[in-house]
């Protein structure tokens, strides 16, 4: 079975909507038909309604249900005498969040299809021989429209979310959409047989999450999700590029280029690049949000100053991985200069107590916003940040050796050694773990950030052994479905609350890489296998997972970009 068909097994119109690369239109299941939304920055789906309900009826007035979904089209069907078809129907077993699952339904024949004519236009048309069909549209204002389907209808969606109905060549639209997806899936990596279906779905997620950011010309950004996360977040761009490189290294480079394109004057990289600009400090947020971002309780930071907002320093790590697949020396040198300025900013602009070890000025800059290490006063010095800074300086030195061999890069090795020494000062031998410190106060929560020093690959043997043991400990991080973000034995553990217990694919992947860098290659492979098994068991690349059940956490976003990308990266690694 081809990759598009494999991906189609997961397109339930609930957790995975029908959409098109570069499109802001999303189609979800609703009752006996579908509903249509736009995807917009900082707006909930409920605020972006285009059509509350779209249904099709046959000549007898019978509603035609959705019977099949593939990346390029949604099929509506009617009764048939055939032997059955894979379709969508009410659940008789474990249900998805609104009670629908992909399952065998009564045999049906295709009667009409829905596809895209262009990124802002839906196209509907009858199957061969189908006549007398009527399109019914329920609009957010409560009005209802009815249109004979004829040979084809197009629904053009404007920037204000208004919908205009017109006639159109449906066959041409269907063929063009199929070509778009065929081109995309031709790049899908080939992996181990048991991982291929989920890899195909994850590849669909990356393609589906491509948007255009008008302020950047024709730049293609892969957003974390068209459901609620429409922008290019710095950290997400790194993880997405790492997975994307296996099938589309050019597009992977584009994600990094966008993330690096808008540094602040001091070199700090912004947290988010979006269609209205960038999010780099609290001043880029609405006034109502700014008070919540002040460093309340801090003794060393000006509570009236704008708070820098960024993401952890994994830029050089991502840059190196993308270049491993397809080299681009001139581009690499250009991006490396921006990475170095960003790394220097951490030490010059985010070492708020001037002790040589930078801090997180706000939880947003950690990527782990709700982690209990931020329950204390800010700013927070954390072992994960120390580990990332050590790793980044080492990566920069290696990239210099590759692309600028005549340049003295010793300062990066020297700074890595100094940061490593300060990182080791955060080791609590009595508790057997690295601690974070908020405003100088020890934060005792046992969290995944304490495992990240493994990434340095240079820890003393006894400390590395202690961290590897923690990964295996069923009372702490060695749970059945994988690595929780807070140890199961910790009072702050919650199996559902974001960053306070649920499993995230990115932290699991980073810890696996740290285990390998620290000499535990077999254990690293086990964690990678456990992580891909989790995504398959959970039904897809969700934002985060309940560590007790292995299912999507209740409030997690579905079809999440970095989970999809890192599943692909893990699948490729495990298939080598």
Account of the 3D structure:
The structure is a single chain. With 576 residues, the protein is of the alpha+beta class. It folds into two domains: 3-184, no CATH class; 187-575, Glycosyltransferase, CATH 1.50.10. The protein has 14 helices and 23 strands. A six-stranded antiparallel sheet has the order 4-5-8-9-12-13. A five-stranded antiparallel sheet has the order 1-2-3-10-11, with no helix packed on it. The chain has a three-stranded antiparallel sheet with strand order 16-17-18. β8 and β9 (121-126) form a beta hairpin. α4 (234-244) packs antiparallel against α5 (249-260) and α9 runs antiparallel to α10 (410-424).
Question: Which secondary structure elements does this structure contain, and how are they paired or packed?
Answer:
Blueprint: H1 3-8, E1 25-30, E2 33-38, E3 49-57, E4 66-70, E5 73-79, E6 85-90, E7 100-105, E8 108-118, E9 121-126, E10 134-138, E11 144-148, E12 153-157, E13 163-167, H2 170-185, H3 193-208, E14 210-212, E15 220-222, E16 232-233, H4 234-244, H5 249-260, E17 272-274, E18 277-279, H6 287-290, H7 315-325, H8 329-349, E19 380-381, H9 383-403, H10 410-424, E20 427-428, E21 433-434, E22 436-438, E23 441-443, H11 461-472, H12 505-517, H13 521-538, H14 561-575
Antiparallel strand pairs: 1-2, 2-3, 3-10, 4-5, 5-8, 6-7, 8-9, 9-12, 10-11, 12-13, 14-15, 16-17, 17-18, 19-22, 20-21, 22-23
Helix pairs in contact: 3-14, 4-5, 4-7, 4-14, 5-7, 7-8, 7-9, 8-9, 9-10, 12-13, 13-14
